[in-house]
């Protein structure tokens, strides 16, 4: 069977995040730094994605002072510890084909140096020289030592409660890597 590797094209890929709290939500973007998918016989078999934690942007807070304050909180040890852990990783180790264009990906998600197994569905569009994946991943932040204002760890938070789960909606485009590209 033919094996083809596909490298993620950063400029054609995006990840949007949403975090919720009792009084509303915040949303923004985060960049994919690098990644690769391996297809064997035209089907996804494995992959690896690197997320650039320092690229987190908040899109719903227009006031520059409040935006900077929230960005600082997300960069702090209460959340992503960006200075210590500039990247997060997703290493795919199991793939189930649910239909010709839908897969269930399972792998190790590593945030703040802590790995947990996660799984989610993706829609895949394939052409001869590219693939695109889209889907949604819901993450329990407390599994990665992000306990700040979590109802699981603090009581009487009232309106200051931040829900444990945040959501990533992603659209990823990757292009085939041919042997000539490895030689450069």
Describe the protein:
The protein has 184 residues and is mainly beta. The chain has two helices and nine strands. Strands 1, 2, 3, 4, 5, 6, 7, 8 and 9 form a nine-stranded antiparallel beta sheet that branches. The two termini are 26 Å apart.
Name some characteristics of this structure.
TTHA0802/YceI-like_sf; 2 helices; Lipocalin; Lipid/polyisoprenoid-bd_YceI; mainly beta; YceI family protein; nine-stranded antiparallel β-sheet; elongated; 184 residues; disordered C terminus
Give the helices and strands, then pairings.
Elements: E1 3-8, E2 14-21, E3 24-40, E4 43-58, H1 64-75, E5 87-99, E6 102-111, E7 114-126, E8 130-140, E9 162-177, H2 179-182
Antiparallel strand pairs: 1-3, 1-9, 2-3, 2-9, 3-4, 4-5, 5-6, 6-7, 7-8, 8-9
Protein name: YceI family protein
Pfam families: YceI
Domain Lipid/polyisoprenoid-binding YceI-like: 5-164
């Amino acid at each position: 069977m033919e094996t083809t590797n596909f490298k993620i094209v950063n400029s054609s890929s995006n990840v949007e995040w949403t975090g919720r709290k009792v009084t509303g939500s915040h949303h923004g973007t985060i960049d994919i730094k690098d990644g690769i998918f391996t297809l064997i016989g035209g089907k996804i078999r494995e992959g690896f994605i690197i997320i650039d934690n320092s690229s987190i942007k908040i899109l719903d807070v227009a006031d520059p002072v409040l935006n900077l304050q929230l960005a600082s909180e997300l960069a702090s040890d209460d959340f992503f510890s960006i200075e210590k852990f500039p990247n997060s990783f997703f290493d795919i180790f199991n793939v189930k084909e649910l239909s010709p264009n839908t897969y269930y990906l399972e792998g190790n998600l590593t945030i703040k140096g802590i790995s947990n197994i996660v799984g989610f569905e993706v829609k895949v569009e394939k052409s001869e020289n590219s693939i695109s994946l889209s889907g949604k991943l819901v993450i329990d932040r407390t599994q990665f030592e992000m306990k700040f204002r979590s109802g699981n760890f603090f009581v009487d938070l009232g309106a200051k409660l931040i829900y444990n789960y945040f959501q990533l909606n992603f659209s990823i485009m990757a292009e085939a890597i041919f042997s000539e590209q490895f030689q450069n």
